[in-house]
Amino acid sequence: MLVTQIPYHQVRDDLWRPLAGASKRYTLILALLSVVALWGLVAWGYQIHVGIGVAGIQRPVFWGFYLVDFVFWIGISHAGTLISAILRLTDANWRKPVTRAAEAITVFALMIGGMFPLIHLGRVWLFYWLFPYPNSRLLWPNYRSPLMWDVTAISTYLIGSLIFLYLPLIPDVAQLAQEASGWRLRLYKLIALGWTGSDREWHALERAMKLMAGIILAVAISVHSVVAWDFAMAIAPMWHSTIFGPYFVVGAIFSGLAGLIVALNIIRKTMHLENYLLPHHFDNLAKLLLLMSLLWLYFTFAEHLTVWYGNEPKEMSVFGARVSGRFSPEFWLMVFVNFAVPFVLLGIRRLRSITTATIASVGVLIGMWLERYLIIIPTLSMPRLQSSWGRYAPSWVEISITVATFAAMAALYLVFSKLFPIVSVWEFEPHEEEH
Amino acid sequence: MSSFITGTFSSKNAVIDAIKKLKASGTGAADMAVFSDEPIEFPRGVLDRPSHMSLAVVSGAVSFFLLVVGIVYYTQHAYPLVTGGMPIFSFWAAGVVFYEITMLGAILTTAGCFIWESGLLRRDKGIPVPAVQPEVICLRVRCMPDSLGMVAATLEKAGAQNVGKLERAA
Question: Which H or E element spans position A361?
Answer without folding.
Answer: helix A354-381
